[in-house]
Amino acid sequence: MILKTFGCSNTKGSELKNRSISAWPVLVGKKLNMLVKNYGSTGASNDHIINDSIEKSPKTEKSLIIIMTTHPARVYWPVLDESYLFFVSLPFSSISYPSLGPQGGGTYKSWLKDHFNLESTIRYQRIQFKWCKELLESRGHTVCMFNWESYNNGDKEIIVENKTKTMNDICQDKPRGKDHHFLEDAQEVWANYVYKIINQDKNKK
Questions:
Q1: What's the distance, CA 141 to chain centroid?
Q2: Distance in angstroms (rounded) separating the CA atoms of residues 105 and 83
Q3: Which CATH superfamily is domain 2-73+116-204 in?
Q4: What angle is formed at CA 29 by the lines to CA 17 and CA 131, rounded to 5 degrees?
Q5: Does the pLDDT value for residue 93 go beyond 60?
Q6: Average pLDDT for residues 157-174, to the nearest whole number?
Q7: Per the confidence metrics, is the pTM higher than 0.85?
Q8: How far apart are the first and last CA of the chain?
Q9: How far is CA 180 from CA 89, 94, 114, 115, 177, in A?
Q10: Angstrom distance (rounded) from CA 176 to CA 31
Q11: For the purposes of burial, counting CB atoms within 10 Å of the CB of 135, is it exposed (0-12), middle (13-18) or buried (19 or more)?
Q12: 97 vs 130, residue with greater confidence
């Protein structure tokens, strides 16, 4: 069985000296003695994470899948590049995004202003992750989901509704890089916690 991990830069291992040996997915894989495919992507939105996990987890390759959510205000935005359509994940706070071009960037900002609501987005993404988990499990995969942090101004709103702690809760006193990513010490602490939860889930079955 393969361990596949999906998330944003906090899963990818951004700002680590060598993420191929110290990112938390790699550390969890070592503890489980499993080959690791880390699909963490810088700037990924929750829509992006869900689509990636479904696209890259076919029935033919049974996996242990670990998904970690990101901030719900990131937007999975369509971009037309000459003859085909692709998607980029955009931070909610983006003022400009060069690859969108002048017209696309203006459309993006207008959409955020007129249509984005954090509370309804959180509720929608909860449903998306629930359906994603059900689909992946129907393909024969084992799926664990975690939250990066709680949102909505401290109201403890979370995307994945479970009783596990967030990475931010577990590692809040650990050093971070200049771009606010947790560094090596936190990766080890979080990997230990994830491994503990996985083993607890195994014992329940």
A1: 18
A2: 19
A3: SGNH hydrolase (3.40.50.1110)
A4: 105
A5: no
A6: 89
A7: yes
A8: 18
A9: 19, 17, 29, 29, 5
A10: 24
A11: middle
A12: 130
| Amino acid identity for residue 115 in this structure | H
Give me the sheet containing 2-6, strands edge to edge. 35-38, 2-6, 63-68, 142-146
Contact 73, 92 (CB under 8 A): yes
pLDDT in tens, 178-202: 999 999 999 999 999 999 999 987 7
Domain residue ranges in the chain:
2-73+116-204
Q: Which two tokens stand for residue 205?
A: 């079955």
Angle between helices 184-204 and 24-32 (to 10 degrees): 40
Helical residues (DSSP H) of 141-180, grouped into ranges: 167-171
Q: Which residue has the higher pLDDT, 47 or 73?
A: 47
